[in-house]
Specification:
This protein has 3 helices and no strands. The protein is mostly helical. One of its GO terms (biological process) is nuclear-transcribed mRNA catabolic process.
Length: 100
């Protein structure tokens, strides 16, 4: 691992090193639906999307749909279900592009 290699090198050079911090995602059990990690991630994504839409004129006309882990289904099934529902709505433009 590159970080370990650099730490060894810096120790040999006598440099001061910050302590190693354990990442919350080093335990893969936290990256599961309904976990605190996923709730935090969802909130951060909502904030990020809101900021971009509010502050970036290029995003003004983009419609962003966030489907987090609270909506139970595999991601590709949720996406296709959403697109199918949209296609049945009045006024749906058949030339609409979907970006995943």
């Amino acid at each position: 691992k590159e970080e370990d290699r650099l730490r060894r090198q810096y120790e040999l050079e006598g440099r001061d090193l910050l302590p190693v911090e354990e990442s919350e995602v080093s335990d893969l059990n936290v990256i599961t639906p309904d976990s605190l990690f996923m709730a935090k991630l969802s909130k951060q994504l909502q904030t990020y999307i809101h900021l971009w839409i509010s502050n970036n004129p290029l995003w003004k006309w983009i419609k962003v749909m966030l489907s987090n882990s609270n909506a139970h289904a595999e991601r590709e099934h949720k996406i296709m279900s959403f697109i199918r529902i949209q296609r049945t709505c009045p006024g749906y433009n058949p030339n609409t592009s979907h970006v995943l």
